Amino acid sequence: MVVFSSLTSVESIKSVCVFSVRGSDGTSLLRGPPECEHVSVVRSSDGSIVSTFDLPKTALLEFSPLNKILITWQPYNKSQDSSHSDANLQLWELQSGQLIKALYQKKVDSWCPRWSEDEKLSVRSVNNELHFYENNDFNTIANKLHMQKVSNFALSPGGQPSKVAVYVPGSKGAPSFVRLYQYPVFGGSSAALANKSFFKADKVTMQWNKKASAVLVMASTEVDKTGASYYGEQTLHYLAVNGETALVQLPKNGPIYDVVWSPNSSEFCVVYGFMPAKATIFNLKCDPVFDFGTGPRNAAYYSPQGHILVLAGFGNLRGQMEVWDVKKYKQVAKPQAPDATHFSWSPDGEYVVTATCSPRLRVSNGYKIWHYTGSVVHKWEMPSGSELWEVLWQPFPDSCFPERPVKYQATPSDLGTTQALPTQVYRPPALRHLPATASSKLHEEEPPQNMRPGVLWEKSLSKSALKNQRKREAKKAAKQELKPEPGPPLEPATITNSQSEPTSGDPETDKKIKNLKKKLKAIEELREQQVSGKVLQKNQVTEILEDMMASSVLLFGR
């Protein structure tokens, strides 16, 4: 665990405002505030300085996946008295501190080049093109992908062959689209692995799964023209490298707060809908697998091993979290971390950290480390007048920590638990001496349910929900029992089908039989309505009796 605050200092660096950790070796990056003139890279294991760079205006920093290159970005600034500006995107060799390449990058969107995990391929967006570089040779463009008005892209994780998702916004009535390509096959009409077109998209976010077999595209508009949502309008699309595409159908209207892939790459979780929001797990066919019901949530976090899922409500919500075992779909704990601005899993999947950081909140800064069962194992609060900016776990390769069995009993701790206390309805002082009465809720909460076909889900239902479900089933069974038993068959002359020829030989008798059948059918319909619980009017009951008497006269002549 590495903590970064205004008290941190490394040799000549007196105050720090950005802290980052990347790579399995624990290399740390520290950047000074506006009054500092240096960016220093230190090793978190012993605090030794790896490299120092004179970059006073640096605003953004990043490491390459193997920690070979440091990328720095400064705001693009072109003075009026100068016809050109200095290159504001620099690539530095981390160990030697030598400048590899200086480039121009005006927009902050997609400012950082993207690398494959083995650093054999990198790509950056330049105007309407994607420039591809191989083996960190940025002096030679190995390949180009030219598309009109490319505004966003996402490089697939993992090794070779690399794939790239490209987004082109719509214009002049034409739809926006996302296409998947495999490097370096970009030419020809059949080069695209998949293509998905859609409207209502001012911007998109694209997420590859870990196996690089599919990508999720969340398209959003800045303004919802229907006026239903302040957050605009969002839709979720699915594209697979085998060519399959789909629109993910969400059963509840409202914004999409979060979309996250499971580490197993076979399912994903979506948090969506007007509050209280729903959370649903979908498979690769975009069919719902499990619905967590509704609750105060706007984020989802899978453990690194993928066996535990945390649904949380941060920001303008109270910080309530739901910890779920996603193999058994059983709730483990329900802790609460109010005012939390940061959440992350430890690499071993046993602990999480929640923190209140600046500048999101400048008061009550600090962090808690707790076991996923709800026990707080460590707590630290910033001294008065100090601010906490970031808290990060030291990263490790995925293979370092195998999956462990899920525990349901809280781990013992001297600091107690963070379980949310049950909330009670406010009652005015004048009514508190009176017996409590059932109160109506502003929102009816939906219980969790398993969406897999043929699976009966009762374990996560509350007692009241189970009771109501059993009442409905008992009522339905009682109605089935109240249905009348079928009577003995009538004589052949009376059950003759209306489309068959009369068998009596007497036209007058055949006419009476036809009228009798009509009246019997009407009586049967009224009786079915009466059995189903519908209250019949008095004249309808009288009509049934009169028709029965008249039918007897027609049939028997008395």
UniProtKB/TrEMBL annotation:
Domain of life: Eukaryota
Domain Translation initiation factor beta propellor-like intervals: 196-391
Basic and acidic residues bias: start-end ranges: 475-484
Extent of Polar residues compositional bias: 494-503
MF-aspect GO terms: mRNA binding; ribosome binding; translation initiation factor activity; tRNA binding
GO cellular component, one term: cytosolic small ribosomal subunit
Alphabetized Pfam families for the sequence: eIF2A
Annotated region described as Disordered, given as residue ranges: 438-514
Coiled coil regions in record: none
Cell division listed as a keyword: no
Keyword field: Coiled coil, Initiation factor, Protein biosynthesis, Repeat, Translation regulation, WD repeat
GO biological process: regulation of translation
Function: Functions in the early steps of protein synthesis of a small number of specific mRNAs. Acts by directing the binding of methionyl-tRNAi to 40S ribosomal subunits. In contrast to the eIF-2 complex, it binds methionyl-tRNAi to 40S subunits in a codon-dependent manner, whereas the eIF-2 complex binds methionyl-tRNAi to 40S subunits in a GTP-dependent manner.
Family designation: Belongs to the WD repeat EIF2A family.
Protein name, UniProt field: Eukaryotic translation initiation factor 2A
Source species of the chain: Echeneis naucrates
Source lineage: Eukaryota, Metazoa, Chordata, Craniata, Vertebrata
